[in-house]
Amino acid sequence: MADELRSRGARRGPTISDVASRAGVDRAVVSRIVNDDPRLRIKPSTRERVLAVIAELGYQPNAAARSLRTARTRTIALLVPDFENPAYGQIIKGAETAATAADSALLTASMELGEESFEHYAKQLGKGRVDGLLLAGGGINGTREEHLDRLGPPWLCVNRTGPGRRRYVVLDDERATEVAVSHLLELGHTELAFLSGPADSDSAERRRLGYIAAMDAAGLDPGFIAHGDYTADGGAAGMQQILSAKRRHTAVLVANVASAVGALYAARRAGVQIPHDMSVISIHDLSIAAYVAPPLTTVRMSLTGLGARAVELLLTRPRDEAIREVLQEPIDLIVRESTAPPKS
Amino acid sequence: MADELRSRGARRGPTISDVASRAGVDRAVVSRIVNDDPRLRIKPSTRERVLAVIAELGYQPNAAARSLRTARTRTIALLVPDFENPAYGQIIKGAETAATAADSALLTASMELGEESFEHYAKQLGKGRVDGLLLAGGGINGTREEHLDRLGPPWLCVNRTGPGRRRYVVLDDERATEVAVSHLLELGHTELAFLSGPADSDSAERRRLGYIAAMDAAGLDPGFIAHGDYTADGGAAGMQQILSAKRRHTAVLVANVASAVGALYAARRAGVQIPHDMSVISIHDLSIAAYVAPPLTTVRMSLTGLGARAVELLLTRPRDEAIREVLQEPIDLIVRESTAPPKS
DNA sequence: TTGTAAGCGTTATCAT
DNA sequence: ATGATAACGCTTACAA
Questions:
Q1: How do residues B5-37 score in pLDDT, each as one tens digit?
Q2: Do residues B296 and B181 both lie within one domain?
Q3: Are residues A205 and A285 in the same domain?
């Protein structure tokens, strides 16, 4: 037995038994040393000896055996809709840092919205693979929530919420739009438009609501609301709508950077000078924003902070506890060159 | 025993024993059914019964137990230097697709170049966690190779090679630069410059070599070679150097899209009209390329193909076999608006 | 057509 | 200050 395994499977390295026998102690002792068991009283010389053998053999504890025994994997999964979107890159980065700090690994996977891929991960992430699940990006409905609950590991939505959702962390999108609107108003704009994200994205919805609320508070008409889809393509289309609207707008708030890049593109194509003819400001600050023409004024929120906090919550909060957190991190206005006072 | 585990660790779901006893069969039978053991001859009725119980209980095989037994984890790790770079996003996507097809999960992690983070992953990826390791991006030297070998799982470099490297897949960067140079020559340019990537990146080096070779073949002087670092910032700096060089260049080949975006920015700042005063072409095609001003002419290579092929090789080739593959996927010239004939 | 049993490498409890 | 032992959940050669 175990012979054919050795050939087909991975090379198995030295085990705890190898270390124990070579050091002349019991496996239990080695285990306690490796895990820094605080209750372990041991002769320094023995410890030295064991440590030496570990180094000599290059012993690495077997993760599978460990998690079989402890029912913990020290791995958490993060599902994102799109790896090519640098915004998710930032979330991942933050999550990874936090996971590392908690001595865990981060398993990332891209989840398209389809039902099959959802099923796939349901299978893949079956029992014993991860300690928890982070879901960034949409596509979580009631049916799926139940599905997830049956899956086993605790889960948490990242920057997605919704009616009835019990566990999520989101950024303060309302406040971010408020900051953006304030900037435009201070410049003297009164005729604003909003270029939104996809209708089924609730971060987009929160931004839209924040925009309307901020305009309301200023006693202004919200103006035209174009629907984009968080892509450059959608942003370009949305900008075209805004430009051809009957009402003349002097400033546009765009729901994300990708859309804003598309919006700038469309303006350029239409011969509209930014910021001379029209100001453009975007929610979120990605590095590309500084290099487009003109460099984009943005409102920065910490996506890395979001990712990090999500991991923290997932790892520390009881699995049945509701989590509804709006992250209160600093929100900064980054003024570049796409906004200016309206021409008189 | 096993009591305190149940409280601290994850909730353990139904096990194979639960299924077996409820279905009135042995665990072995359940196992064979779950794994589609082809050698299993079983009464259809029994199979039905077992399957029903599995569904009823929501049984999911425990991954830890499985890989402890089989010495396979069905997980591979992919280390990238930067999640915010959409180019790595594409590689990840390709790798994920291939991993999924091979019924494996992909564990991605960002590896900064530092020695500590390397150590960290060495620990984290210790025995029994992954079946293999994909390393995209630099920072693999001789010492680390040994380190990796001691780690256990087989590994493979993605788009990174180097003298003595035994296992890698790379894109055909030489051919890509050739395509780019041909395009510029066909437009009538003769005074080219090259804006390179970081000196320690061998994909950058391959592109530089390809450029020089192509220029040589055309009987032209390679002109100015500016050193960038694959970032927009570096690209902007490199472009400044090129613009202030004594020699006047009419076209620039940029080693990657991020640098090209920076180069366009610098040109704009300097009042140089692209493509009227100067043509710019970039290696790789990312979606942003279509939206910058002016839209960027690029040479497209399949980064997803690269990721997919890497997984395939890692999973199918013997662990000790050398792998030195230059991917022969189609290389396409995407003509947009940043290239034009030189002004006469 | 199905069952038996050994063992994968750890760790927690209890004993010495 | 250290050791013995059982158990975590699963797979597979072999027996029935």
A1: 333 456 678 999 999 999 999 999 999 999 988
A2: yes
A3: yes
Q: Is B67 exposed, middle or buried (0-12, 13-18, 19+ CB in 10 A)?
A: buried
Given the structure tokens 């949409």, which residue do they identify?
A138
Number of domain units in chain A? 3
pLDDT for position A116 = 64
Strand D bases with any atom < 7 A from protein Cβ: 1-13
Residue A344 lies inside a defined structural domain of this protein: no
Q: Distances from the Cα of A220 to the Cαs of A185, A191, A223, in angstroms?
A: 10, 8, 8
Do B64 and B115 lie in one domain? The reply is no
State how far Cα A241 lies from the chain centre.
30
B29 CB contact with strand C at below 7 Å: yes
Residue A140 lies in a domain: yes
Mean pLDDT rounded to a whole number for chain A: 89
- How far apart, in whole angstroms, are the C-alpha atoms of residue B303 and residue A276? 39
Separation in Å, CA of A276 to nearest CA in chain B: 17
- Tell if the CB–CB gap between A89 and B90 is shorter than 8 Å: no
Report, in ranges, which bases of strand C sit under 7 Å from a protein C-beta: 1-13
Question: What's the Å distance between residue A40 CA and nucleotide D1 C1'?
Answer: 9
DSSP-derived pairing of the beta strands A297-300 and A279-283: parallel
Pair A179, A289 in one domain:
yes
Residue at the smallest CA–C1' distance to nucleotide D11: B69
Residues A253 and A281 in one domain: yes
Q: Inform me whether the pLDDT recorded for B113 exceeds 60.
A: no
Q: What CATH number did the domain enclosing B11 receive?
A: 1.10.260.40
Domain boundary residue, one of A37, A69, A101? A69
Say which CATH number the domain at B262 has. 3.40.50.2300
Judge if B151 and B295 occupy the same domain. Answer: no
Tokens found for residue B11: 């909730």
Angle B112-B118-B119 from CA coordinates, rounded to 5°: 145
pLDDT for A161 = 84
Nucleic acid strand C within 7 Å of B24 CB: yes
CB within 8 Å of B323: residues ≥ 6 apart: B156, B166, B167, B168, B169, B313, B317
Structural domain containing residue A311: 73-171+304-327
A168 bridge partner residues: A157, A324
Same domain, A220 and A285: yes
B185 contact partners, CB below 8 Å, separation of at least 6: B218, B220
State mean pLDDT over A11-17: 84
Q: Which of the nucleotides lies closest to B72 (Cα–C1')? A: C8
Which pTM was predicted? 0.91
